[in-house]
Amino acid sequence: MKGSFLGLALALAGSSQAYLRFGCATLTVQRLDPLVEPGKVPSSHLHQVVGGNTFNATMDPKVDVGQKGTCTTCTFSEDFSNYWTAVMYFKARNGTYKRVPQYPNALLGDLKGGITVYYLQQDFSSNGNQKITAFKPGFRMTVGTPTSKDGTNPGLRYTCLQDVMTRFPETAEFPKKPCPAGIMAIHHFPACWDGKNLDSPDHQSHMYNTNQGGFIPAAACPASHPVRVPQVAYETMWDTAQFNSPDIWPQDGSQPFVWSYEDSVGFGTHGDYLFGWKGDALQRAMDSKSLLSNGIATQSVAQANKCTIPNTVNEEIDGWLESLPGRKMDM
Length: 331
Hints:
Elements: H1 6-9, E1 20-24, E2 26-30, E3 47-51, H2 65-68, E4 82-86, E5 88-91, E6 97-99, E7 115-120, E8 140-143, E9 156-160, E10 170-171, E11 183-188, E12 192-193, E13 207-208, E14 227-228, E15 231-238, E16 257-259, E17 271-274, H3 281-287, H4 301-306
Antiparallel strand pairs: 1-7, 2-3, 3-4, 4-17, 5-6, 5-16, 7-15, 8-17, 9-10, 9-11, 11-15, 12-13, 12-14
């Protein structure tokens, strides 16, 4: 599945819908988090990052990464945004950990791992009748938090994949039994903005979450956050199938998958977003009635895979590890 993958980006989009669905290859996997722990090298836990090559430990909000970026791992070559999540590990009976690889789904094709990203106006069947305002340079946000002890956010879910096309049912915590084709983690971000602040101290208060779960249209925005922005969502597919043998699961039958911040339940799943589309490309996409209009530029899988950044943090993240990267065994 080589060459241009515009067709893949349109796979679920009818000609009258202006939502975007596209794959982004892995840019880097390392302990950096310029939103929650800016400037800290290394950050507390491991992340997988996709998107533009301006990603670094600080990410000054005054820098327009859409203008500064020189390559991106995403389908759309004008998208230098960065998208990142925690990394999934398998914890064996003997207490050692191994990183779970990502499952190559239909959208990702020959991309190196990565995330499937969505920008929706309303849902899969309608553009709706609201003005969708694209994010501005310097905008960033997060959804979820590693310290969460419940699954009340309907936009943070998991799917136990029977095959790569499975989308339901969804659960608030990790699946409790082996999944034939892996585990998909889903992150839906808020779509209501206060219209003033490009960020907030907790990276969430400038947004308001009216998400109702899945790709159901979000509810109306409140007066405090009146500006409707694109509904951003991630799907990340983890190839847990290679760890499905009962011989290596815990003897008590407990769920053995953990996030890189030591979460074996899954309520703490979270995602980070940093806007970086070039110029007015995203606004043109949201204003259009067809993804083929307004000249949104794409690139080939080979071009996306070439985009990388050097490691700032040099540590072992693969193989069987005595502890998760940055985490002590007694934690």
